[in-house]
């Protein structure tokens, strides 16, 4: 912690007014989250930085065959906010829906999408058996332009595998197999 304390990013973070920091960390969903925030503010600055960073929220959207389900999770993997809309057909309608879901998850500096099908490293959906009228769809680029922020895209089963390895049943396991069942079936290997 002492080494981190002198990093320029940490110093810049701590120079912000506390209310601005709080507004950029997502929204507390309940009294427990609010209590955590208040406890963090009462700590010495170094400990406060660690506590507030652990409270930081991360938004993501699972794009499924029937719904687009957006969530904000805290650093412990607890869902602090969620919002969902039906998945429409076609590129433009999907971008509109994803932008609407993302707006409900704000504020954020970047957002992640889990999408069924064949996804390129630059966020193009080459083919998706569960999405209607979607082929060669540059979803990362189009949504990034719409939101004005970075959009990370991966296959939904890969995202589920990462989530299980980080927060779920596979946490602490050296290797895992994750099978996803929804509109379709998918899987991921955690090696």
Overall description:
The chain has about 190 residues and is α+β, with helices and mostly antiparallel strands. The protein is globular. It has a 5-stranded mixed β-sheet with strand order 3-2-1-4-8. The chain has a 3-stranded antiparallel β-sheet with strand order 5-6-7, with no helix packed on it. The protein has helices at about 1-5, 10-15, 20-25, 30-40, 45-55, 90-105, 140-145, 155-165; strands at about 60-65, 65-75, 80-85, 110-115, 120, 125, 135, 150-155, 175-180, 185-190. The chain contains 8 helices and 10 strands. A hairpin with a 7-residue loop joins strand 6 and strand 7 (about 135). Helix 4 packs antiparallel against helix 5 (about 45-55). Residues about 1-5, about 15-20, about 25-30 and about 50-55 have low confidence and may be disordered. Helices cover about 40% and strands about 30% of the residues.
Radius of gyration: 18 Å
- What string gives the helices and strands in order? HHHHHEEEHEEEEHEHEE
- Biggest sheet descriptor: 5 strands, mixed
Read across the widest sheet, the strand sequence of neighbours is 3-2-1-4-8
Q: Approximately how much beta-strand content do the residues carry?
A: 25-35%
Mean pLDDT figure: 79
Extended strand count: 10
State the helicity in percent bands. Answer: 25-40%
What is the overall number of helices?
Answer: 8
Distance between the termini: 30 Å
Outline, from the CA principal axes? Answer: globular
Name the structural class.
alpha+beta
Unreliable stretches covering 5 or more consecutive residues:
1-6, 17-22, 24-30, 48-55
């Amino acid at each position: 912690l002492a080494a981190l304390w002198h990093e320029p990013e940490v110093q810049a973070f701590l120079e912000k007014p506390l209310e601005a920091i709080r507004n950029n960390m997502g929204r507390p969903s309940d009294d427990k989250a609010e209590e955590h925030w208040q406890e963090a503010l009462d700590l010495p600055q170094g400990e406060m930085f660690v506590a507030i960073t652990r409270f930081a929220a991360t938004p993501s959207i699972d794009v499924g065959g029937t719904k687009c389900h957006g969530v904000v999770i805290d650093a412990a993997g607890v869902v602090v906010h969620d919002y969902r809309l039906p998945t429409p057909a076609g590129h433009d309608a999907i971008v509109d829906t994803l932008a609407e879901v993302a707006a409900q998850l704000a504020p954020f500096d970047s957002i992640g999408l889990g999408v069924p099908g064949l996804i390129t490293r630059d966020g193009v959906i080459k083919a998706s058996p569960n999405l209607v009228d979607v082929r060669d769809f540059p979803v990362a680029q189009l949504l990034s332009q719409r939101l004005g922020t970075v959009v990370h895209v991966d296959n939904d089963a890969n995202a589920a595998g990462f989530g299980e390895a980080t927060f779920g049943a596979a946490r602490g396991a050296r290797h895992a197999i994750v099978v996803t069942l929804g509109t379709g079936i998918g899987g991921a290997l955690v090696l």
